Amino acid sequence: MDERDERRVEVEREPIVERHTTVVSTGGERGGGGGTLLAVVLLIAVVVVLFLLFGRNMISGGGDEVDIKIETPDIDVPELPKADPPTKPSQPSG
CA–CA distance from 30 to each of 25, 34, 35, 90 (Å)? Predict the structure, then answer.
């Protein structure tokens, strides 16, 4: 045998391992629409309830119930002489 054959050392290689990554999406990007819709519906319901409680008085003359008193001075206005309205001149028949 040759000297080269004796020095030969076998090296063990690591086994080849294949790895696969799977990405699972739960659709979290679209989840905000339901919450927004619920908030809008609740806001409309609150506005309707407030209108039913307080809005009818504003529409049906709620201001008629307010008693406003304003003091004004007495002013004497002299009566103007009565004047007869001018008459139309008679037109000759012709």
Answer: 11, 9, 11, 91
pLDDT, tens only, 49-89: 888 888 766 666 555 666 778 888 888 888 888 888 888 87
Helix, strand, coil: what percent of the chain each, to 5? 40, 0, 60
* Region of residue 68 (phi > 0: left; psi between -120 and 50: alpha; otherwise: beta): beta
Structural element, H or E, at residue 43: helix 32-50
Question: Looking up tokens 């529409």, which residue turns up?
Answer: 59
- Alpha-carbon span 41 to 35, nearest angstrom: 10
Query: What is the C-alpha separation between 35 and 37, in angstroms, rounded?
Result: 5
d(CA 82, CA 66): 40
pTM (two decimals): 0.33
